[in-house]
Please model this.
Amino acid sequence: MKTLFYTFRTNKHIPIFTNEGICLFTFGKLKEDFKKFEALIEKEKPTYIIGIAEVKTKTRIELKAVNNFGKVGKVSKNGKDSYILYIPSESVFTISKGYITSFCNWAMYKISELTEGKDIKNSFVHFNESDIPQLITLLKKTSPHL
Model:
């Protein structure tokens, strides 16, 4: 079982995760970096992919990725309306009641679209800085190789 983790260049906590042995693929330029992440998925053949990004509000696990980007855009022109994400049983965090349409959603949706029909679970956690220790515990529980 192999887990891949990803985040975004705006995540100022990357060194904390790295010090814990959690290697985060970092998205900067979405489309360009997605091609690199796609190649990484092909090479590593993960069974689990988890994305993380910081929020100022309460930590939550996203329930779905939607085919919306911003107020009027689409992530994928002819794509499905949404993908249900995997909620790890080990999680102590709240499950999101809504959805987002930002860069996080774009990445979640594209990864879900790419891995559809494959035996790969996708999750995403929006974390509050105060919950980093619990998030690290969750990431380690979902990744036996750490």
Q: What stands out?
A: The first strand starts at residue 3 and ends at 8. The chain has a mean pLDDT of 93. The CA atoms of residues 67 and 76 lie 6 Å apart. Strands lie at 3-8, 24-27, 48-54, 60-61, 64-66, 82-84, 94-95, 121-127.
